[in-house]
Amino acid sequence: MDAVATLATLTNATIRFDGQIALSVKRLAIAKGARLAVTGESGSGKSTLLNALCGLERLNGGELRWGETIVSELGEFERDRFRGERIGLIMQEFYLYPDLNALDNALLSASFRFWRVPAALKARAAYLLKRLGVKADQAVHTLSRGEKQRVAIARACLSKPEAIIADEPTASLDSRNAAEAVKALLELAGEIGCALVCASHDPALIAKMDHRLKLKKGETIEADF
Ligand SMILES: Nc1ncnc2c1ncn2[C@@H]1O[C@H](COP(=O)(O)OP(=O)(O)OP(=O)(O)O)[C@@H](O)[C@H]1O
Ligand SMILES: [Mg+2]
């Protein structure tokens, strides 16, 4: 694969918890625009891999590179800024603020980055929520789980990231809402032209992705997508 097409690379990376290796990667390269499902049994390290890939979990050794940026060499503040600017994250438990409305939640990461959120971003948040069928002014604690997930998707897509990284984005949804969430993720990632990396146990989601990486506890990852 040529360097231009590579989005992110983990090289000789390990993560240990209490001395135990939770993640071991000889090399994992993800191409721009790739759609990758990360599968494997519970405890196999899917969340750990996603967290390593976005710089949320610090490596115990090795390198994480996104383009010219060696993320593993950045301090915590710079890694947070890198993630905010370049990655749309969707965590399993949504991490929405229940007392804010849908629009303010969709704008949450932007509001950390800008002293005053630009009008264009507010307009984009409103557009994404409308498109996803969520009322912008509804308080998040009154939304259904499916609607909360769509707010999380809107937030992840807001700043047109280079990758959307989602940890089990359909795990707590019924099949109809799960299918809608997958459709929205695929459509929006396609429009943005960004990569989509999802950890999942959901066969319907896994089938829709272009690539699959199956993790096994204790095995070293070596793969190019
Ligand atoms: N912060 C932590 N401290 C200690 N151990 C951890 C921590 N995070 C994860 N682990 C351990 O690392 C291993 C991998 O966990 P991880 O959460 O990545 O699995 P997973 O594949 O995402 O599982 P699931 O499908 O249940 O979400 C597990 O054995 C887990 O107990
Ligand atoms: Mg997990």
> What topology, given as strand order, has the largest sheet?
5-4-1-2-10
Alpha-carbon distance between the two ends:
9 Å
Poorly predicted regions: none
The helix fraction, in percent, is 25-40%
Output the helix-strand order: EEEHEEHEHHHHEHEHEE
Percent range for β-strand residues: 25-35%
How many strands, what sense, and barrel or not for the largest sheet?
A: 5 strands, mixed
CATH fold assignment: Rossmann fold
CATH architecture: 3-Layer(aba) Sandwich
Per DSSP E runs of 2 or more residues, the count of β-strands stands at 10
Summed up, the helix count is 8
Helical/strand content category = alpha/beta
The CATH superfamily label reads: P-loop containing nucleotide triphosphate hydrolases
Mean pLDDT: 93
What would CATH call the class?
Alpha Beta
Hetero groups in this structure are: adenosine-5'-triphosphate, magnesium ion
Number of domain modules: 1
What is the general shape?
globular
Tell me the Rg in angstroms: 17 Å
Task: Describe this entry's structure for a reader.
The chain starts with 5 loop residues before the first strand and ends with a strand. The strands form 2 sheets. Strands 5-4-1-2-10 form a 5-stranded mixed beta sheet. It has a single domain, classed as Rossmann fold, CATH 3.40.50.300. It has helices at 46-53, 76-86, 102-106, 108-113, 119-132, 145-157, 175-192, 203-208; strands at 6-17, 20-31, 35-39, 61-66, 69-70, 87-90, 163-167, 195-199, 211-214, 221-224. The chain contains 8 helices and 10 strands. With 225 residues, the protein is of the alpha/beta class. The protein is globular and about 45 Å long. Helix content is 36%, strand content 26%. The structure holds adenosine-5'-triphosphate and magnesium ion. Adenosine-5'-triphosphate binds at residues 17-18, 22, 40, 42-48.
